[in-house]
Specification:
Elements (H helix, E strand, L loop, with lengths): L1 E5 L5 H10 L3 E5 L3 H8 L4 E2 L3 H7 L2 E4 L4 H9 L13 E4 L5 H12 L4 E4 L2 E2 L1 H7 L2 E6 L2 H12 L2 E8 L3 H29 L4 H8 L7 H11 L9 H18 L4 H15 L10 H9 L7
Parallel strand pairs: 1-2, 1-4, 2-3, 4-5, 5-6, 8-9
Antiparallel strand pairs: 7-8
Helix pairs in contact: 1-6, 4-5, 8-9, 8-10, 8-11, 8-12, 8-13, 11-12
The chain binds nicotinamide-adenine-dinucleotide.
Length: about 300
């Protein structure tokens, strides 16, 4: 089976490397030629365009920024839809709006091409380790057919429901992560201003009810002043836009998510949009006029 992989960024590059490691034959494409060369050195073929990928592959994986890019790559001029044959499939692992997933699913279905929306959680470290959490929407038999490919990049792969359900799950994930980073930031700024070591507070509470994967990933980054992405503020703003648009349309008010969205907007104004979302702590540091460090 020949797999096409489009989008070799922070996430797509390590994910595609894990597919090569698992023994799959890969053809890659990205606007960034350097990223393609890196994969070529590991044994992947490189393609001339998205359409070139579609014409030669049995299944194509996309890992692109957001709905407009995925729609352009799949449905736009010279898009995958022009080259994919009936019986082939698209597995879109980008985090995009559920409505956009459903639109692409329907357009491909008319051509006899299957589609799964299969966004991921876990960030760059888990993409590198091949231990991502993947949440999948689409037809169940299509999920079963491509499970092994997805599992080569992941520790957990869960079928959530029909087309778009994977991206609904991802939006839920982003709500929890955003509010959790804000909560960790509030706790650490309190420790700092109260004259207690943020690091010792972190060590003291991480094993109790307050502990979380988010706390373990982000508290050390904040205390060590490491805001290298990871997951950029501007991508999280993109996700929260999709969250709030979806939540408003289904009648689910999300007041805390809206608050964190405004915190992220303030960080963007301050020039932090390309930093890791651990930078949420900087909003609180500005309010409290201090910096969260280990001591
Ligand atoms: P990224 O910006 O690092 O990578 C995107 C890649 O897509 C880039 O290499 C870019 O050149 C390529 N690209 C854009 N338009 C293209 C086109 N028309 N044709 C070919 N290639 C094109 O982003 P990322 O951090 O890897 O995120 C990708 C997706 O995964 C996003 O939806 C993001 O929300 C999601 N995600 C990211 C993380 C994370 O921690 N970075 C975690 C979970 C999910």
């Amino acid at each position: 089976m020949k797999i096409g992989f489009i989008g070799l960024g922070i996430m797509g590059k390590p994910m595609s490397k894990n597919l090569i490691k698992a023994g799959y034959k890969l053809v890659v494409y990205d606007l960034n030629k350097e990223a393609m060369e890196e994969l070529k050195a590991l044994g992947a073929e490189t393609a001339e365009s998205n359409l070139d990928i579609a014409k030669q592959c049995d299944v194509v994986i996309t890992m692109l920024p957001n709905s407009p890019q995925v729609e352009e790559v799949v449905l736009g001029k010279g898009g995958l839809i022009e080259g994919l044959r009936p019986g082939t499939a698209l597995i879109d692992m980008s985090s995009i709006a559920p409505l956009s997933s459903r639109k692409i699913y329907a357009a491909l279905k008319e051509k006899g091409v299957d589609m799964l929306d299969a966004p991921v959680s876990g960030g760059e470290p888990k993409a590198i380790d091949g231990t991502l959490a993947v949440m999948v929407g689409g037809d169940k038999e299509v999920f079963d057919k491509y499970y092994d490919i997805i599992k080569a990049m992941a520790a957990s792969v869960v079928y959530v429901g029909e087309s778009g359900a994977g991206n609904v799950a991802k939006l839920c994930n982003q709500v929890v992560v955003a509010i959790n980073i804000a909560a960790v930031s509030e706790a650490l700024i309190l420790a700092k201003k109260a004259g207690v070591s943020p690091d010792l507070v972190y060590q003291a509470i991480r094993g109790g009810l307050a502990g979380s994967t988010v706390m373990d990933a982000k508290a050390p980054m904040i205390m060590d002043r490491n805001f290298k992405p990871g997951f950029r503020i501007n991508l999280h703003i993109k996700d929260l836009n999709n969250v709030l648009e979806t939540s408003h349309s289904v009648g689910a008010p999300l007041p805390l998510t809206a608050q964190v969205m405004e915190i992220m907007q303030a960080l963007k104004v301050d020039g932090y949009e390309a930093e890791d979302h651990a930078s949420i702590a900087k909003f609180y540091e500005k309010l409290a006029n201090t910096q969260i460090t280990r001591q």
